[in-house]
Amino acid sequence: MSNLPNCPKCGSEYTYEDGTLLVCPECAHEWDPAAETSNGEDNKVIKDANGNVLNDGDTVSVIKDLKVKGTSSVIKIGTKAKNIRLVDGDHDIECKLEGFGAMKLKSEFVKKI
């Protein structure tokens, strides 16, 4: 047996190497074992338009009219999003907006209330 670590996502023991990455054939998760060993200061700080640090559960307000892709709807200035959740990616805030439902926003277009 190899001494490769189990998949951090699903716990599968059938991981294999693909170049510099490790791959899980069961859930298709890929990760860099070198990043795992540094383990720690990878936490990205997400800030709003005014430079305030955002945290999960904060309430934010939209600072400019935002067009909703794929529709003719617009999210107006001042629309509040309560109990936000921070995620990785280009749009780093997940929230629910009244009248729109679940939505992802960029932190540069919101301010902390």
UniProtKB/TrEMBL annotation:
Residues 4-32 form the Protein YjdM N-terminal domain. Belongs to the YjdM family. This is Protein YjdM. Residues 46-112 form the Protein YjdM C-terminal domain. Signal peptide: none annotated. Coiled coil: none annotated. InterPro entries: YjdM, YjdM_C, YjdM_N.
